[in-house]
Amino acid sequence: MGYFVFLPLVLPLTAWPIARLAEQHLHPRTATRLLSAVACVFAVCSTLCLGLLMVVGTAQLPGNPLPDGWSDPEVRKALPYDEVAGPLAIPALVAVLAACARTLWRHHRTGRRAHRALAGLRPTPVAVLPDPAPYAYALPHRDRAGSRGRVVVSRGMLAGLAPAERRALFAHERAHLAGGHHRYLLAVRLAARANPFLRPLGTAVAYTAER
Question: In the chain, fewer beta carbons within 10 Å around the N or the C end?
């Protein structure tokens, strides 16, 4: 096995050229799905690699509850610098899990706050907020009626757009809801937390989702 055991940790370095090729040569829908899948696969593999490094590298420590076979010299010989890689993998894996948990918590907290802000409005497909600042976004939410979510727009944004521009705005935000783009964005965000080398894929998915 040798140094190939570290390959899942460094293979995401190819994320930048993959992202560039997908942006330039694939349809935005295809690029969004493909890049999200690649990011998830890379993230899972690198996280499992950290777990393997931790298990094999610390198996010989006293009091370890793992089976004796894991501490066999032949097993540890497959891992270069096992006495260093194992202990270092522990804080790295903890950091990955903590970062992913924090990202999920912030994602759900933001969603709850957004829905709470609309609690006093009628449950229409488009929610207009009395705010002079121009902004608009898609708020995903699947209810019993089968709705994918709502388009939230401020009065300031509507005031600055012509009728045709308003129709384009609503079509754009509804496309986000219909395509479930929030799921892809969350997936690549979690992948980037698992391995920072995957950040280019997150930037690329944000771009292709907007397209």
Answer: C
Taking a C-beta distance cutoff of 8 angstroms, is the pair 152, 139 a contact? yes
Q: Report helix angle 199-210 to 15-25, nearest 10.
A: 10
Structure tokens at 54: 């931790």
pLDDT of residue 75: 53
Q: How far, CA to CA in Å, does 124 sit from each of 95, 134, 149?
A: 41, 20, 10
Of 103-117, 138-152, 179-193, minimum mean pLDDT range: 138-152
105: its two tokens: 């918590």
As for how many domains the chain has, the answer is 1
Task: Determine the Cα angle at 28 with ends 108 and 45, to 5°.
Answer: 60
Sign of CA dihedral 40, 42, 46, 51: positive
Q: Is 136 a domain residue?
A: no
Contacting residues for 48 by C-beta, under 8 A, at least 6 apart: 8
The answer to whether 83 and 39 have CB atoms below 8 angstroms apart is no
What pLDDT does 29 receive? 93
Residue 196 falls inside a structural domain: yes
| Domain that includes residue 100, residue range | 2-119+180-210
Question: Residues, the chain, total?
Answer: 211
Instruction: Indicate whether 188 belongs to any domain.
Output: yes
Q: Is 164 a domain residue?
A: no
Backbone angles phi, psi at 134, to 5 degrees: -80, 120
